[in-house]
Automatic annotation (TrEMBL):
Domain GFO/IDH/MocA-like oxidoreductase: from-to ranges: 133-259
Pfam families membership: GFO_IDH_MocA, GFO_IDH_MocA_C3
EC number(s) recorded for this UniProt protein: 1.1.1.18
Top enzyme class: oxidoreductase
Protein name: Inositol 2-dehydrogenase
Keyword Oxidoreductase attached: yes
InterPro entries: Gfo/Idh/MocA-like_OxRdtase_N (IPR000683), GFO_IDH_MocA-like_dom (IPR055170), Myo_inos_IolG (IPR030827), NAD(P)-bd_dom_sf (IPR036291)
Domain of life assignment: Bacteria
Species the sequence originates in: Virgibacillus dokdonensis
GO cellular component, one term: cytoplasm
Length: 341
């Protein structure tokens, strides 16, 4: 079967993770081109990954006749434009979350994606490809914990990255805490429950870096959600976990409950020293979800080869952003927000 030739735009930590997986772990694909505005990233792609074709213009990369598909890991505000350009060039598209930051822009993207049904579109909600989450989903779907009553999600970045984030937020728009980070947990709520969110109430606080107030962003936020069947969901999102990268999910049902990653363990090693018994923890998303990132990219390639669309759709991207935006609106307005359909 023909190998799939890929181009990638965006070579930050997320983009480079995808690029490494393509080059080192997916023999069905070839990374033939990369695009970045940062010269150091292009040089790294050449020296570390052996990619010969480098571009500083996404539009110019799309003119490369050798490319079959693109991976979009550019800043969130560019995702919609990049998706539409690539689809119109006849290319398959994998896009990192979110699909966009403005609903009107996402709706334009959906219209374009729907216009090219034979091209594969894949959205990067990688937690759906984590084996622990897939195991829990199977248990829920099989009714082993009964009817879901409450879903609780923690998603907190390490404190060691907070200063860098503040610098980023000063120069770029992240989309806000809920659209930038909690969107993964929002997707999990919809995925596990199979239901839509009908109202949200969210709050937030900036403690370590109060200057985030002026930037319209949050260090820590929390949201309470009510789903269309009255199932409840509680989200805690943040950027200041002292112990590392903390992602935890709890599913409470009428017959039992499940917890996924109650402790963000790095491995199965316990350290016994003068601090007591210590369990090392994951420090970055690329470490905790290393296999999930690989498995979602592998799925994208197989979908192209098999001519089938993945389970994650453009509508999952739209609904997650609608909910994330409603959470931010709730913070700004200080009131519960109804999500109209």
């Amino acid at each position: 079967m023909k190998k799939i030739n890929l181009g990638i735009v965006g070579l930050g930590r997320m983009g480079f993770t995808h690029a490494e997986n393509i080059v080192e772990r997916i023999p069905e694909a070839v990374l033939v081109a990369v695009c970045s505005f940062v010269d150091e990233e292009l040089q790294m792609a050449k020296t570390k990954l052996g990619v010969e074709k480098t571009y500083t213009s996404f539009e110019n990369m799309l003119l490369d006749a050798e490319i079959d598909a693109v991976v979009i890991a550019s800043p969130s505000g560019l995702h919609g434009e990049h998706i539409r350009l690539a689809m119109k060039k006849g290319l398959h598209v994998f896009c990192e979350k979110p699909i966009g930051v403005e609903v009107e822009d996402i709706e334009k993207t959906i219209e374009v994606v729907e216009g090219y049904p034979k091209q594969i579109f894949h959205l990067g909600f990688m937690r759906r490809y984590d084996k622990s989450y897939q195991y829990a989903k199977q248990k829920v779907d099989n009714g082993e914990i009964g009817d879901l009553t409450l879903i609780r999600c923690y998603g907190i970045d390490p404190a060691s990255e907070l200063e860098n984030f503040v610098k980023f937020a000063t120069n770029s728009k992240s989309g806000g805490l809920f659209a930038d980070m909690a969107i993964h947990d929002i997707d999990l709520v919809r995925w596990f429950s199979g239901k839509e969110v009908k109202r949200v109430w969210a709050i937030g606080k900036n403690t370590t870096y109060p200057e985030l107030d002026d930037l319209g962003d949050l260090e820590t936020g929390a949201a309470m959600m009510q789903l269309e069947d009255d199932t409840m969901a509680l989200l805690v999102a943040g950027r200041n976990a002292a112990h590392g990268y903390h992602v935890e999910t709890e599913l409470i049902g009428s017959k039992g409950m499940l917890r996924i990653a109650q402790e963000p363990e790095k491995n199965q090693v316990s350290i016994f020293n003068n601090q007591g018994v210590v369990r090392p923890t994951s420090q970055h998303f690329s470490e905790r979800f290393k296999e999930a990132f690989f498995r979602e990219m592998k799925e994208f390639i197989l979908c192209i080869q098999d001519g089938k669309q993945p389970g994650i759709t453009v509508y999952d991207g739209l609904e997650s952003t609608v909910i994330a935006n409603a959470c931010q609106e709730s913070v700004d307005a200080g009131k519960m927000i109804e999500i109209s359909k």
